Amino acid sequence: xxxxxxxxxxxxxxxxxxxxxxxxxxxxxxxxxxxxxxxxxxxxxxxxxxxxxxxxxxxxxxxxxxxxxxxxxxxxxxxxxxxxxxxxxxxxxxxxxxxxxxxxxxxxxxxxxxxxxxxxxxxxxxxxxxxxxxxxxxxxxxxxxxxxxxxxxxxxxxxxxxxxxxxxxxxxxxxxxxxxxxxxxxxxxxxxxxxxxxxxxxxxxxxxxxxxxxxxxxxxxxxxxxxxxxxxxxxxxxxxxxxxxxxxxxxxxxxxxxxxxxxxxxxxxxxxxxxxxxxxxxxxxxxxxxxxxxxxxxxxxxxxxxxxxxxxxxxxxxxxxxxxxxxxxxxxxxxxxxxxxxxxxxxxxxxxxxxxxxxxxxxxxxxxxxxxxxxxxxxxxxxxxxxxxxxxxxxxxxxxxxxxxxxxxxxxxxxxx
Length: 417
Hints:
This protein has 11 helices and 19 strands. By secondary structure, the chain is of the alpha+beta class. The chain has a 4-stranded parallel beta sheet with strand order 3-2-1-4, sandwiched between helices. A 4-stranded antiparallel beta sheet has the order 5-8-6-7, sandwiched between helices. Strands 10-9-12-13 form a 4-stranded antiparallel beta sheet. β1 (4-9), α1 and β2 (29-34) form a beta-alpha-beta unit. The chain is globular, with a radius of gyration of 21 Å. The N and C termini lie far apart (54 Å). The mean pLDDT is 93.
């Protein structure tokens, strides 16, 4: 009997095709749960209409479907679907993380509180309600600090402040971003709050792993070789394997596992952002999902398709053995940064970028004529560059050389933030 899984994803997801291909390879019966089912009927898979803005109602819908066609597991692809997956799996008695943990992974206020309560290294934080100005915490803030919204992702609205005047400007700017944001979490209590937390020094890394019965199975440690010191924190390059000393890597994995357990993320994928300095790690953020968007393709180069691992784990099947592609002792991805806000008119240098030795692919995700916003207002990338090579240093060099080949032409935005 084939294991039946439900994949939850927003209609804007990049990853549906990858999961469908993984379902064929792993032999699972994959159902699709999304907020726009009609757009995915072409795949010939059963679809379930999911309203991610109402997680409890969505979980009830899934439970109703499962009464006739039971699922062996539920796979989430982003923060909102992770909350729905946890609620539905708990109703159905499936292995899962706690719904409270999935909510905490989405809400940085809850996340920080739980990490502090369990003694997991994490920056001290304060919360400003919409009625409070920065003066309400003037005696508590240590500079530099970082201002961020509690429920947005991708470094959107995250701003470093080095003094009281910068803090006031940053809080105002984050509040403008939140006031006009269309997040499906907008109706959640505290969406308009602002977090002010201590700045963490050190190198930033990402840990990708699977939690099983509260234990972390690491899949990769990604170095982020660019200095992410602010004032904004746009991620650019991920490279694996890590070049950090073994003791520092062991500490990263220990802190990542402790963080997941502190939130109640006992089963399923986790993506943990950390900083490490002097061999000691601290948690920046933690997500109850795998690495997002097209970035997941880097696993195909380093260890085989990530989606195969996620589906096998959700179905309770043995995890596929690593299947590193030839010549890919190291692999990496560059999320092509947005240098300025504007309307994308033209992209040149793609052939030259793809011809750089070690480059596996270059994808421009932004469409010509599309308005794009740089950080901190923006929440996307211009595209993705993938590379593989004999060493992490060779991969990093290839990514930088390919990026240098690309040129973007812009028209001004009419909209003002």
